[in-house]
Structure to design on (95 residues):
């Protein structure tokens, strides 16, 4: 599980404190599209705590698609995104 935002106990996107679930920043199902091995996504560095509402709405969206809809969520995410792997950061567009 993600180390950083777990401590804060809030959704990494909207900041709600619950109920929380584990979200894959880059959806597992889209590994081929982003030119990475599946295990790069099936990894702690791609997992964050997100509230059920955000997780459900984000669904299979890529981080870019999600943050286009919610630029304010990107700010909160960025502030806590230091533990993300270089690959994930590249896909998110913050590499
Ligand atoms: Zn949320």
């Amino acid at each position: 599980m993600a180390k950083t935002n777990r401590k804060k106990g809030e959704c990494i996107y909207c900041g709600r404190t619950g109920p929380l679930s584990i979200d894959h920043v880059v959806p597992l199902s889209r590994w081929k599209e982003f030119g990475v091995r599946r295990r790069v996504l099936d990894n702690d560095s791609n997992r964050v705590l997100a509230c059920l509402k955000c997780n459900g709405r984000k669904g299979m969206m890529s981080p870019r698609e999600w943050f286009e809809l919610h630029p304010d969520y990107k700010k909160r995410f960025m502030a806590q995104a230091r533990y993300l792997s270089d690959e994930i950061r590249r896909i998110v567009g913050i590499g």
Q: What stands out?
A: The longest helix spans residues 71-79. The pocket of zinc ion is lined by residues 11, 13-14, 16, 50-51, 53-54 (CB under 6 Å). DSSP finds six helices and two strands in the chain.
